[in-house]
Amino acid sequence: MKLASLFSGGKDSVYSTYLAKQEGHEIVCLISIFSENKESFMFHTPSISKVEKQAEVIGIPLLIWKTKGEKEKELIDLKNAIKKAVKVYEIEGIVTGAIQSVYQASRIQKICDDLGIKCINPLWQKDEEKYLEELINSGFEVIIVGVFAYPLNESWLGRKIDSRFIKEIIELNRKYKIHVAGEGGEFESFVLNCPLFSKCLKVFDKKILKEGENSFRLEIEVE
To answer: 132-183, pLDDT tens digit by residue?
Structure first.
């Protein structure tokens, strides 16, 4: 099936794209939504512009659509982006990185229903601990580019998701109910390398932005 991937550059969207290809689907384009609202209910925002570098090393066309990020209204922008992908790339469905978010999954499903295309969610209801282990075993190199919940702080920014990370985040889950895969918005990630990439991306510059007591973003430059 010819599919477009809703692509944020984070682990969930990249891994779901990888799984869809593994299942035999053809990913003909990536769709990235650039939101002006950093608190968007739907879209990942830390270092979002760097998806352009990821698309280059994946070798798949990238369709960028901008939104003001207003709740519910941003869904109109998403629908318009998908409609363009249907017209330009003749896609038959969308791949999402939804794991447990009914809010996101239900709204994307409705858009797909309205447009008469399929909605494919390869990560839906995956065990979060096993999912992170799968990422590592599949050759994904992922770093943290945003933290938004106590007790996470700026020391977590730039950290790789590895076995030590999984061990520590499981402990935080036990103590503070932090979602192991960040599904509650506790942290955001960026993929530097994976089997989809023709080469590994390297971070050559970075800047930490503090937005609140437990809210930090890492804006990166990659090559």
So the answer is: 999 999 999 999 999 999 999 999 999 999 999 999 999 999 999 999 999 9
Alpha helix locations (H) across 59-162? 74-89, 102-115, 128-137
Range list for CATH 3.40.50.620 in the chain: 2-120
Q: How far apart are CA 193 and CA 201, in angstroms?
A: 6
CB-based contact 161:11 (threshold 8 Å) = yes
- CATH superfamily, region 2-120: HUPs (3.40.50.620)
Provide the token pair at 106.
Answer: 């239900």
Taking the model in full, what pTM does it have? 0.96
138-222 is a CATH 3.90.1490.10 domain: yes
- The token pair at 202 is 């390297």
Distance CA 109, CA 104 (A): 9
Q: Where in the chain is the domain with CATH 3.90.1490.10?
A: 138-222
Measured from the Cβ of residue 117, the count of other Cβ atoms closer than 10 Å reads 21
Structure tokens at 66: 């901008």
| Residue 79 contacts residue 115 (beta carbons within 8 Å) | yes
